[in-house]
């Protein structure tokens, strides 16, 4: 392992993390809801969610509008997507099914769950980061190399 | 009022993901590439996010109701089961293939990324498949 100093951006990462944490706190304290994106999106696709739709739609609208607001102040960051269409489809299906089956993703388990010291979320976060490490290792260093 | 707060919260969450660099799949994959040139930035996203949220949740746990009314919807599930582990491993593999997790994917759709739209459409399909299977299993058990 070597450190990629060229792309390492601790201050931006910390600032972004503080905003994410603050938003998660606002949602639980003011509305009593967990800021888990997969649950917020997935909940809209479940039946019998009457009375639980409006706040989810508003939250997702906020996520969708964030790039436009960001662009008012600063150019949008460079985005580099290496995966082709078939890989994006496979990845999307795995993320969609996996986050619902495992009850959460990087936000719900990784931020909100660990902050509550939930053992389930610590286990889930360890599992998806480990699976991510292994997947990238296989794709970048075993198959391509 | 609740709707406005929810919208603003989503906006702040999305800005956080953009500022943190999480909307760039190459950056996320740089973090997941521990055996190559490793970019530890995402550790700092977690430190910042959990640092603030841990204090907030400590306060939130003591509240009987949300400040704007309604119940505190803390997850009720407790045990470590197969669903949690297998689902999280599946998510991790998908995350490692594309570098997208659900939040950044939705934000990137808002930024107009065609690739994010393809990913998000597949993700929504996966969630629908889950909902259908889950309903089926519940009926048959």
TrEMBL record, chain A:
One of its GO terms (cellular component) is plasma membrane. It is a multi-pass membrane protein. It comes from Ephemeroptericola cinctiostellae. The chain crosses the membrane at residues 20-45, 57-73, 79-97, 117-139. It is found in: Cell inner membrane. Belongs to the TsuA/YedE (TC 9.B.102) family. Keywords: Cell inner membrane, Cell membrane, Membrane, Transmembrane, Transmembrane helix, Transport. Its main location: membrane. This is Uncharacterized protein. The keyword Lyase does not apply.
UniProtKB/TrEMBL annotation, chain B:
Keywords: Membrane, Transmembrane, Transmembrane helix. The chain crosses the membrane at residues 41-60, 84-105, 117-137. It holds the Pfam family DUF6691. It comes from the Bacteria. This is Uncharacterized protein.
